[in-house]
Amino acid sequence: MDERPVESSVEWVFREERGRLLATLVRRFGDLDLAEDVTSEAIEAALEHWPVEGVPDRPGAWLLTTARRKAVDRLRRDQAYAARLAVLQVEADRAAPAPPADAGGDLPDERLQLFFTCAHPALAAEDRGALTLRCLAGLTTAEVARAFLLPPATMAQRIVRAKKKIREARIPFRVPGADELPERLPGVLQVIYSIFTEGYAASSGARLQRLDLAEEAIRLAWILRRLLPSEREVAGLLALMLLIHARREARTGPDGEIVLLDEQDRDRWDQSMIEEGGDLVLVALTGGPPGPYGVQAAIAALHDEAADVASTDWPQIVALYDVLVALAPSPVVALNRAAALAMRDGPEAGLALLDELADEPRLRGYHPYPTARADLLRRLGRFPEAAAAYREALELAGTEPERAHLRRRLHAVETPGA
Amino acid sequence: MKYMLLIYSGATTDPACGVEDWMAYDKAVREAGIRVSSESLADLTTATTVTVGPAGERTVTDGPFAETREVLGGYYVIDVPDLDVALDWAARCPGARGGGSVVVRPVADFGL
């Protein structure tokens, strides 16, 4: 119950319980479909009985007992299915013996294995986030579809496809060993962060932010942080998301238009979320070499702590980008580093770095690249070139608020002095 | 659960990956008690393709020749508990290195 108590409605409580229950049942029966079905049935039963008979002392145990009974009933009716599952279970135990039950909690928390299964590299990248939201955030398929702006039927097909692969290729429900963790954990973090970024800067559609997905990602990261308290990159990812999400109110204007960092009303930033994120940055950067999420969180913290753009600690931000370039080199990181360097050393220096990235194939079609160039050209007073770069960015930008912002900037450089 | 590891050769042959590596891998698979079957295939230039048309007419052609750079060079069928174990064995296979790749496919099970 120490997760963020964002809501206290009945549905919310069940969403939390759903993931735990599902994970426990998957461990018990080795079958995701069966576990999902009986989880839903147990929750329906609770909705029916609890208002009449009162909430039991151990609601989690009540749900588990009910779900198990329903699963056993179903397996009695379908002997062939039961036989197949029995084989599965024996082999699963051969691969990874069941952990001892957690004596302290109402229900043992076995969600970690489910995180790793849903983010398994053998699943299609676009299916991992959907499956994670479905199984661990407790969203219905329709809710997941709405979050990704996809027709429910399309989302249902994706989830069915992913579950079929888990079942038929037998992707195991297991937590990777300590030796595999460095290879597998980044995949789980990537899934959560991509849910967050999808919610934060919707790649298409009219609304710039879809708060639900960003908050779901944060909630998933809180769960993961509790399950893996000693993994500093989990703290780093959570810190990064909190420190970005803290600016959500200031990020759009009254008409939904985009407000960039330099123009945001910083009084509208969520100070308690910034503090929470700041504490986690310390965790992420203490006790060993930093990871990429920890470093990105530290950069976000420097922005969040500054009173305005001018007093931002740009030398420190550039230094952190240098660390990030070494840890996780990518053209996008190089682009962000160039933008920060332009703040420290002036637009000319930043532009020189950006021009070095001109032939980078991974930046082709990526609208922040021409946007960054255009902004620096504008600051240098090279308006015709800036206008050309804004036009290029406009061709590529996905959301309407982003395009509106670019049109305003374009208009300003087309009519300088106006 | 049975998985077939299909071993595709890459564009270049990694000189670091020699006969000894294959022998060591083969020995490891056998000693782990997971090998169901395995073969390596003769050179692609020895391949012959057969198709039978709608009227039952048989067409035999030389080839196929490597149109893509990847050529199936051999396979293992192994029996292991789950995909993660199969992927580990695929990653240990010398054919996964030097530009080659190993495709892991579950063997369809119609028995249960």
Automatic annotation (TrEMBL), chain A:
Keywords: Sigma factor, Transcription, Transcription regulation. GO terms for molecular function: DNA binding; sigma factor activity. Residues 14-79 form the RNA polymerase sigma-70 region domain. Residues 118-166 form the RNA polymerase sigma factor 70 region 4 type domain. Residues 184-281 form the DUF6596 domain. One of its GO terms (biological process) is DNA-templated transcription initiation. InterPro entries: DUF6596 (IPR046531), RNA_pol_sigma70_r2 (IPR007627), RNA_pol_sigma70_r4_t2 (IPR013249), RNA_pol_sigma_r2 (IPR013325), RNA_pol_sigma_r3/r4-like (IPR013324), TPR-like_helical_dom_sf (IPR011990), WH-like_DNA-bd_sf (IPR036388). Belongs to the sigma-70 factor family. ECF subfamily. This is RNA polymerase sigma-70 factor (ECF subfamily).
From TrEMBL, chain B:
Belongs to the YciI family. Pfam families: YCII. Residues 1-110 form the YCII-related domain. It comes from the Bacteria. This is YCII-related domain-containing protein. It comes from Nonomuraea dietziae. InterPro entries: Dimeric_a/b-barrel (IPR011008), YCII (IPR005545).
